[in-house]
Design a protein that fits this description.
16% strand, TIM Barrel, 329 residues, binds iron/sulfur cluster, 11 strands, 10 helices, alpha/beta
Length: 329
């Protein structure tokens, strides 16, 4: 974790990027020094978690993150941002300064603030308190029983399913903002009728404002993870009820500004959001054909980028992301 030692050169603010739920979202990554997570989800787009980390600390100084946010906001028109979103390269709430960061960002700008988290630390009262000023919190819940939860999240040994659910229930009792729980549905993993009924029972206890159903569109770390089809989504909606919002995205279409160096801009994006090659070409299409090919050739030579194949497509991703088919155990 040496890269976290001072974090001065790491980029903590990115975007605005288009988000399915949040319009144009200015992202803040409080853990930019390499994937830092207490889960190792089978569907993670950031590669495998090595090692699992469950320690809360200031991986990057709060002052450095706030200076980056201030700089980014200073260069944007008010109409260019809808939300400010904390979303880490890993588990957002592992940064111990999150409470301070949320308050400071809300003071700095008039935009609503969202926090994307796996929710694993919501069983800690202090963490719940820190999140109360956020306008929306989006924790994960991919299973309604312990064995499946562990199979999917491959979580740190200090965590467990019951603790996770209890944390979500306790948070809902305190929190008056929007609680949008997110479930990743995967074919043959968590989409059976019985599994969805288990999930529905837990969701009924949590009482989120919405349950967002998603399915993998970016490259899952494990090559056997597959998205669900329309039939499974319809089954899920029938079982889980009106709380469900199905989020289907055309993944990864980004507007890259004319003023940016295209290869650098693409690298900045793919380390956090791997992109399908055809959509990357589309995002670059306002440059001439020759420029697009040149950018892809530059990326192919760049040690910071790699190609990973999933669902029969080529995706561009950061080279630090560990995929088992590229780097077998
Ligand atoms: S999907 Fe999120 S919670 Fe799961 S391993 Fe990746 S970063 Fe961690």
């Amino acid at each position: 974790m040496a890269e976290h030692e001072n974090g001065e050169n790491l980029r903590t603010v990115f975007g605005p990027v288009p988000s399915r739920r949040l319009g144009q979202s200015l992202g803040i990554d409080p853990l930019p020094g390499g994937k830092t997570c207490n889960w190792n989800c089978i569907y993670c787009q950031l590669g495998r978690t090595r090692p699992l980390v469950n320690e809360r600390r200031a991986y990057v100084p709060v002052e450095k993150i706030l200076a980056d946010v201030r700089r980014a906001l200073g260069s944007l028109e008010p109409t260019e941002v809808d939300w400010i979103t904390f979303v880490a390269s890993g588990e957002t709430l592992l940064h111990s300064g999150m409470g301070e960061l949320i308050l400071a960002v809300k003071e700095m700008a008039p935009y609503p603030v969202a926090v994307i988290t796996n929710g694993s630390l919501l069983s800690v009262p202090e963490v719940r308190r820190e999140l109360l000023p956020a306008d929306a919190v989006m924790p994960s819940l991919d299973a309604g029983q312990a064995k499946l939860f562990k199979k999917i999240t491959r979580h740190h040994p200090d965590l467990d399913f019951q603790q996770h659910v209890d944390g979500l229930v306790a948070f809902r009792e305190q929190y008056t903002g929007q609680l949008w729980v997110e479930t990743m549905l995967m074919r043959g993993v968590n989409d059976s009728e019985e599994q969805l009924r288990d999930l529905a029972a837990v969701v009924a206890r949590i009482r989120p404002d919405s349950l967002h159903l998603v399915s993998p569109t970016r490259p899952p770390v494990e090559p056997w993870v597959q998205p669900v089809g329309d039939e499974a989504l319809a089954r899920a909606r029938a079982i889980l009820g009106d709380v469900v919002t199905i989020l289907q995205e055309r993944p990864g279409v980004f507007e890259l500004g004319e003023e940016e160096d295209p290869a650098t801009a693409v690298l900045d994006i793919i380390v956090r959001h791997p992109m399908r090659e055809d959509l990357l070409r589309e995002a670059l299409s306002h440059w001439q054909e020759g420029v697009v090919d040149q950018v892809l050739a530059e990326l192919a030579r760049d040690p910071r980028a790699q190609v990973v194949e999933r669902f029969g497509c080529r995706f561009w991703s950061g080279s630090r992301q560990i995929y088992p088919d590229q780097a077998p155990d």
